[in-house]
Amino acid sequence: MEDQQDTASRGEAADAGAGIADSGWGTPGPLLAWSRCLGLGLAVGLGGAQALLLAAQLLGWTFEVAAPVAVGLLVLGFGGGAWRARPRAARPGRSGLALVLLMLTCAVLALCSNRDLARDDSQYIPSARHFLEHPSEPMGFEVHWLEGGAKPFTSEFFLNSMPWDHLRAAVAHVLGLEFLDVYFLWGAVLGGLLLPLFLFRQLRGLVGSEGRAVLGTWLALLVVTLLGQQLRSLGMCGLTRIFEGKILFLAIGPAWFSCALMDALRGRRIASLELAACSAALIGTTASAVTLLPCLFAVLVGAELIAAGAARRAVLRRLRGAALALLPLALYGVGMKVRSGLVMEMDTRGAQRTVGHHLDLVLGSGEAGGLPHGWVVLVLGAVAALAILRGRDRRLLGGWFGLAIALLLNPLVDWWVSGWVTTPWLYWRTLYLLPFPLVLGVLGARSLRGAGARGLPVSGVGVLAGLLLALHLVPGSPSIFRSHGTTLGAPRWKLNLELAEAAERIVERVPPGPMLAARSIGQLVTVVRSGYPQLHNGPHTFQFWDQRDERWRAHQRVLAGDFATQRSPEAIESFELVTQDHRLRSVVLRSLVVDGEVRRYLKQLGFSEHFRMEDFYLAWRTDEELARRGEAARREWQDAGQDAGKGGAGNGGGNGSARKGRARR
């Protein structure tokens, strides 16, 4: 009997009696058991460690107390899972060796994929670095990459370090390692190891043998690495950026969550613990998990009810335990609502809400163009996989696609989902709830199920894999290792090393304090050292100052940054206004914008120390000058308050309206 019929018959037997865990998704096998043990240990370790670090922030614990406990929880959890997996790993067999080889290959590729720092990373790293460099201070939610005037900005869930970032800082603190090594390199290795592990575990539930599941995982990843047309495409939100928390979530989160949930719905007792711990672990990578995972939960429960047939009652009985495992998501969501005063509301002006726009962001061809096109590969792959599958497996996968499209991804609901569930800027992430890498693996594994016997010969499988690898070398190929500035090379920090070296030289000379810097260097200064909050960091500067209804202040600071970068004529007035702020410690200008007039002006404002590098000009105020200017500003505000019956113009100190006229003169 064919493999599809074998799987269907096992599903029917499970429907007729107890033992859903022995059907389809949960068919026993040593490699599946090994992957489950590792998944459980990782969930408990990551979830517990990140939950503790979040609690430390809420309670104001010091980092030097929280970090060792978090690392201890991580080691205990993962160590326990590895110990449980040890008997299954004693004799891995060819399939086990092939899976381990794939995991190591992906880890190496993630480690050696190099690209410049994304702007978001310059906002996720600084708070974690601050805790690392000031371990005896109470932890909190202060924003350390943006200067907020007299009252620092705070943010719990938006554009600030997340527990996943804090955990890497904790590992660096406990082991005495360089933080950026742990952040970029260790994070990439872990993500590379986990990506094929959870894809294999998904596939193992839909194909008849572990060997075919491993083969399908190999082929699926070979195809996915050729989907680099768009920055948000399935390929680019994977190996090359997997050290980022949000990318780690998109790459492994849906697969991991679905495996734990399906195990729980099919009667595996310990699966509910993994589901709860997995939810806590994924929340720590990105706050968007609090909305995306419940959506995936609803879709998968519906799909399983469609697929279960006569066993629906058993699924419904187990549903209560699975729903209770979502408690970490519920607590986090309630916390976001209760503490909404500290939540950054995203500016949705100009955001696209239509599902077509977001489909194109993920599946479109993008500027790179070429084949394989996301639409062609994934849509035809889904249709082919559904045609190959039979019985319960087809109903499950069809229900997964159908419910996700009906509930989340169609023109009738796109405005509501993007406006009330995900926000318009994040709506595209709901596409990652579809089982696209899974269907590619199913298609490969089921089509090649008899490799060496009734299906494609083993040599043919090798030829197919070779062709997919060769496509990475074709000129204009959308390979993820050649797209959007990504290159393969020796492992290094995922940023511009030349600018990072310049940033390190700057912080060696300039004392800590608020800094106005050229755009190219300012964000890297906050990454390599704590204590240098920037006056601007692109568009996100507006979103923070909008909280205080002072958008004009953000506008002035961004324009001043434009002057520091290229000396645009329309930004001169803003530069003059911003540099009068009595809190401003230093300025870092591109050398090409500095002339005698600029140097004289800065000296008049008290920037008495100067230094010129190859591409940058540094100027800063001494401690004495800052203290003198601060006292002068306080006296001026007091006099203005007595004369006008009101205080100064806001949190920005010397940037207030009382100084605008003088700045223009």
Could you outline the blueprint of secondary structure elements for this entry?
Blueprint lengths: L2 H14 L13 H30 L3 H27 L3 H20 E2 L6 H13 L29 H13 L3 H26 L5 H15 L20 H21 L5 H13 L5 H20 L3 H13 L2 H12 L16 H9 L10 H15 L2 H17 L6 H9 L13 H12 L10 H13 L16 E2 L8 H13 L5 E3 L1 H10 L11 H6 L5 H16 L5 H7 L7 E5 L5 H9 L4 E4 L3 E5 L2 H22 L15 H5 L1
Parallel strand pairs: 3-4
Antiparallel strand pairs: 1-2, 4-6, 5-6
Helix pairs in contact: 2-3, 2-6, 2-7, 2-10, 3-6, 4-7, 4-8, 5-6, 5-21, 6-7, 7-8, 7-9, 8-18, 9-10, 9-11, 10-13, 11-12, 11-13, 11-16, 15-18, 20-21, 23-24
Short description:
The protein has 665 residues and is mostly helical. Helices cover 60% and strands 3% of the residues. The model is unreliable at 1-24, 367-372, 452-456 and 646-665 (pLDDT under 50).
